[in-house]
Amino acid sequence: MSRVLVVVSAADELVLADGSSHPTGFWAEEVVESVRVLRDAGARVDIATPGGVRPTVDPVSLTDGFGEFLASIDDELAAPLRLADVDVADYDGVLLPGGHGPMADLAFDADLGRLLVAFDDAGKVVGALCHGPAGLLAAVREDGSFAFAGRRLAVFTDEEERQGGLAVPYSLETRLRELGAAPQPGAAWSSTVVVDGNLVTGQNPQSSVDTARRVLAALS
Questions:
Q1: Tens digit of pLDDT for each residue in 109-119?
Q2: CB-based contacts of 18, cutoff 8 Å, min separation 6
């Protein structure tokens, strides 16, 4: 049985480009489908956040019955693992769902960065979805190099950000390119998944199920 760590943002606000504060959190569909697909396939899933803080769901994302599933795992969301306490040896892979929250905390989290470098160096599956790849920004090696430089990946695109209309503080797609990664954008709002070795990434909420399935395939 595979064991997967699902890392969820604990941020509840994002400071926008104009300095104003925007309520945010994790995107319900991305956490729900990630956990559901993995568990339905028999994987063991643990949820972790920075500091073990209970994560906040972006209220805009509570559609299509996702709230019912979140209620069914509320005990786990109320007491997630602390990233600082996670041992990579206990897991076969890690998956980072999105929402804008990861841009506020996971992108700068040293514990997550350490874990991602260790997962990647061990050849274990590293998955990220939508804005979840913001967490990859934290994966800096001791020599200052970006762990995922040269890797092909999917991420919420600049075009989707423009269409969404939120003035985010930085372009995630552009930041990843600047660090040497190679985003492979699909059509806006299409289910797009990119697999580069052990790295499995999805572009947007529409990619949630397909990303989790590709993570499963990589685990097997």
A1: 999 999 999 99
A2: 167
